[in-house]
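Quick one, T. Sequence first:
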Amino acid sequence: MSQKELYNVAILGATGAVGQKIMRLLEEKEFPVKQLKLLSSKRSAGKQMIFNGENVTVEEATPDSFKDIDIALFSAGGAISKKLAPEAVKHGAVVIDNTSAFRMDENVPLVVPEVNKEDLKEHQGIIANPNCSTIQMVAALKPIQKAYGIERIIVSTYQAVSGAGAQANKELEKQSKDFFEKGTMEAEILPVKGDKKHYPIAFNALPQIDVFQENGYTFEEMKMINETKKILHQTDLSVAATCVRLPFFTSHAESVYIELAKDGVHVVDLWNELRNAEGVLLEDDPATQTYPTPLSAAEREEVFVGRVRKDLDNDRGFHLWVVSDNLMKGAALNTVQIAETLIKNNWLK
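Structure tokens:
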């Protein structure tokens, strides 16, 4: 802990799902807050929220909102982050941004504290929180990479609707009800609200998360590919991703195939690495049908891993099933953990 014991903290996007979880975690973890400032769009300004038993009025975010702020936790969309993060830094705040705005900027650390906290030492005022799907995968794979090296990753995701926002959750609820009552469903949001076509998510699977890129991959898939290489400090790593939205509310699940750099590794070796990994919980016992699910991972802080098994055709190949709450570790918790790590190591500067 640095000599300064209490900190002025701002949450941008405080009325959103992630912003509310960030505020709750600051309370639960007794984060050293001197004064909390809650910021949002003009539409939500004036709302009252409770922090540590006291009412806090939500204010409209402006460039001057960050005067005297030490730590600013951003979760309000990439365009807003690009506009306001540099302004916050000018006022002396350290920004931890939960959007894709700065993730691939070579001057901005992209951090999962259990994986690459040392990168925080090089920050220049802005730190990026990775994509939710990337966070849980690299948390599970880092101990394996450290012990045996990884040469290839192929991941297929099964992602919760909440990753597309509260309105997408409401659409799933309405479509489910309409399906049984009317036999028809209307879609206005998924797979991408601003894209040309929309499909029902209820009783369905949508192999598109975010917009398609020229190479045929979606932006979500390219985020996983590029962020994984940056976080693991392995530019030559082969990574492929297919991201799919499924009709449940919370927690992302992933089927991950990896190829190691070493021969002769067994499942028990991977189990041992995962059991000792910070922030990871191994739930893997086929005999008792023990494995993580999105429901069992909801509201939990850990990254859960199960179904660890060796590939039948490649001695260096292994399969893993990785599940984590996308709004918890995948967003709010990782943001707060970055702030805690900065304070603990005196890296705020």
